[in-house]
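Standup notes, protein team

Yesterday: finished cleaning the Astyanax mexicanus set.
Today: Zona pellucida sperm-binding protein 3 structure.
Blockers: none.

Input for Zona pellucida sperm-binding protein 3:
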Amino acid sequence: MGLGQAGVRLFLFALMAFCEAQRRTWETEGASGALRDLAGLQPRVRKPAPAGHGPQAPAQPNVSVRPQQRFNLQPNLPPNSRKPVEVQFHQQLQGPVRKVTWRFPQVPLKPTAAPVPFQMREPVSANSVAAECGEKDVYVEVKQDFFGNGLLLMPSAITLGGCGPSGQDVVANVLMFRSELQACNSIVKMTEDDLIYSFVINVAAEPHLDTPITREDGASVYIECHYLRKRNVSSNALLPTWIPYAATKVAEERLMFSLRLMTDDWKYERPSSQYYLGDVINIEASVTQYNHVPLHVLVDRCIATPVPDVNAVPSYSIIENHGCLVDAKVTGSSSYFMPQDQHDKLQFQLEAFKFYQDKSGLVYITCYLMATKASAPSDAENKACSYSVNRWTAAFGDDQVCRCCDTICSLRKGRDVSSEEFQISLRPLSIEDPIDSDLVQSSIENKATLT
């Protein structure tokens, strides 16, 4: 019984040793057999460990494995096919590859639009307000087409300092206002020389009928009435202790000249010295005769400067060469002498201008006046000549005297009344560009003597 059990155990031990030897042979030879065939290597047989080194392993049966008995791990391939390792190796030895020319598509650019020929329209002054300052009141006319766009404003939308219109011209669509100088919320301001009353024309914006829109905005126009402070207004009697200036002039038999801005109808002195480019400036030269025989007033020359100094630079000669109005010939303007109907008055028109790059817009005009007997004929130095249609014409007398205007007019040997010239200047002219000015804003100055 004991021998049988010992034999069974020995058999199991031998079987386990055989299985372990087969497993190790598989791991060392079977898995790397294919690689050794490619490299031309022989399978390596493990040698037993020499005696005396390390623990002795249990006795194992001597099992030899022939190379032909190795397991073939490669799949069955056709005869002409290549092994996977050879295929990979062959791909690595291929020639140069064509460069990739493909690119990501680009986003198309938006074409640039051509420039549009457009020019902004500049606003033009509507000239819808006119004012006249009297000694005690102010009179104002306002067009109902206030903005010049063809739309008539309601009378209730236009007030003079809160006061409504006192009249209306339904044919001309004009509203009329009249107010005392101290009424309609006027503002009084006093300077060293002037007493100024200021009024405001207010235009309220109103929607069109029952709609919430409007095509005109509100606006304000300021009006100023200037009155010179030259009289004593106290109630005490004033006894002069000097000889009146006019009486002195008469006694000395000297002449009194004047140079004034006139209204369009030449009836009154123009109260304002403000003009716009393109306006016509009416100028009147005159002489007071007193006890003299009838006199003929002459404008010998006129010079314009941007400052009060007549010798300043730059300067512009308007009349020269003893009465030749050269502005029309030099600039092609419409300036000319009016036909002379009265000997003691000489009138001429000057087209408004301003000095280049002068931001003030002020123009100072100085003229040199003289007088001769009215019965004396015109000559090269006693004339008033205008240039029009490529020729010179005289305001009085024969046109032949104007021929020297293109050369040099000869000097006179003597004068009938006085060989002296009288220098006189206009008050400063304010010339503005109508495009640069506000659409409806205006400032009207009227000067009168306070009595």
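Follow-up from PR in the comments: Helices lie at 2-30, 33-39, 84-92, 245-251, 327-331.
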